[in-house]
């Protein structure tokens, strides 16, 4: 999928649209993606700061989708697990930068070549407009080369 279309679809996706989550930038090769979310009445928690579920949502699919786009159709890529640590209150617009460089994709291809599953972990920081850490998310992906289908004898 072309990055411009991907960005448009993600920004129109109701769970993101209704929380104010926006894909602000995506590099043509899917190696970089930046997301933001302003503080609004509909994503504010009981104490007036960014709702934790919305903070996590802004990190949910992006590393998996970036990896899928780069690694190609011969691999299975899933989000396996995540952990979020809330560090400080998000009182304004928050930002997250995702990076999945081509050399990491090559490492995943090489390490998964034997068909064994990989479970690489990546850390994504959510920061406020001043660069202060609001939350840290550790994502674990599941990456495996697809098994070849047996040929039908005939």
What is the CA-CA span between the terminal residues?
Answer: 36 Å
CATH superfamily: Hotdog Thioesterase
Structural class: alpha+beta
Helix residue percentage: 25-40%
What's the tally of helices?
A: 5
Q: CATH top level?
A: Alpha Beta
User: In percent, how much strand structure appears in the residues?
Assistant: 25-35%
Task: Tell me the domain tally.
Answer: 1
Succession of helices and strands: HHEEHHEEHEE
Shape: elongated
Radius of gyration using CA atoms only = 17 Å
Biggest sheet descriptor: 6 strands, antiparallel
Under the CATH scheme, the architecture is: Roll
The fold-level CATH name is Thiol Ester Dehydrase, Chain A
Number of strands: 6
Instruction: Strand order, main sheet: write it out.
Output: 1-2-4-5-6-3
Q: Low-confidence stretches at least 5 residues in length (pLDDT < 50)?
A: none
